[in-house]
Write a structure and sequence with these properties.
about 300 residues; alpha/beta; 12 helices; 3-stranded mixed β-sheet
Length: about 300
């Protein structure tokens, strides 16, 4: 297939594309610059100039593809709500080119969208359309396309990691470096799920091959890792102290990340594993943090 990939040069996209190429697919990658286009071309990827801020460019890219994987997202968390709305517009623009066909569109969301009640593991069969997180905008846009007949499925991401980047944990590392200490709030029992980058890339390929309309998948290898354990691993890797903060102290420490630092996001991938025959084999999040690439 000829597959249009947004976020082609990003952390996850850079791992997904080799999976697609190895499976014999042709990849068209979104890029915003001529320099990026040259890099994609050198890697055997057809470049397509466009941006998330130009929805028409996304429609044009999807229009000439047999399938679409949407990975691009603006990770400026100080403007998170607006960026989630921008993602919804991008999803609608991609889907516009696919209406009336069976060409699949695989979008991304977060595992938090699958939590039915506080303390529960997120599940693939759960979707709260009234979820308070701005990230629900992506899934609402996906639901609208499903109703319009688009062959759309959703990949919900946990903390995707290798030794270079670790999802939201990367931002905690940056904050720890800047503050001179790693920190968690209270007893640190807030939990996050996680998945190695290599296993995640394979999962995207399997989900695209399945192309089941309305399917939701969880990129989750570890269901629940406490932020206390994550923070301890950060402190050890950076050789800095670790502290427990009060809610009042946490605001100054975490800044724009405070909302995420308080989110409990454990998740199951039981349905994903059964549906796609997927079993993660990569290292744990704490193992990757212990081997953190600090160059």
């Amino acid at each position: 297939m000829r597959i249009f990939v947004t976020g082609a040069t990003g952390f996850i996209g850079s791992a997904v594309i080799p999976e697609l190429l190895a499976a014999g697919h042709q990849v068209v990658g979104l890029t915003r610059s001529e320099d990026g286009a040259e890099k994609l071309h050198a890697a055997g990827i057809e470049p397509h100039l466009g941006t998330l801020e130009d929805p028409a460019s996304l429609t044009r890219g999807a229009d000439k593809a047999d399938a679409v994987i949407h990975l691009a997202f603006d990770h400026d968390f100080s403007n998170f709500q607006a960026n989630c709305q921008k993602d919804a517009v991008a999803i609608a623009a991609l889907g516009k080119a696919l209406i009336g066909s069976d060409r699949p569109l695989l979008i991304t969301s977060g595992v938090g969208m699958g939590i039915a009640a506080r303390g529960d593991l997120a599940r693939e069969d759960v979707l709260d359309l009234d979820h308070p997180s701005p990230r629900i905008a992506s899934e609402l846009a996906g639901q609208a396309l499903l109703e319009a007949g688009v062959n759309l499925s959703t990949m919900r991401l946990s903390q995707i990691h290798d030794t270079r980047r670790q999802g939201l944990v990367t931002y905690l590392i940056d904050i720890a470096r800047a503050q001179g200490r790693a920190a968690y709030i209270g007893d640190g029992q807030t939990r996050w799920s996680a998945c190695p980058l290599s296993d995640t890339a394979r999962l995207f390929r399997l989900a695209l091959d399945k192309a089941e309309p309305g399917a939701r998948y969880h990129a989750v290898a570890e269901e629940a890792i406490s932020l206390r354990d994550i923070t301890q691993a950060i402190g050890e890797a950076l050789h800095i102290p670790v502290a427990s903060l009060t809610t009042e102290q946490a605001q100054a420490h975490f800044g724009a990340m405070i909302g995420f630092a308080t989110l409990d996001m454990p998740a199951s991938s039981a349905h994903t594993r059964a549906a796609l025959g997927w079993e993660p084999v990569g290292p744990s999040l704490l193992q990757d943090l212990a081997a953190l690439d600090q160059d």
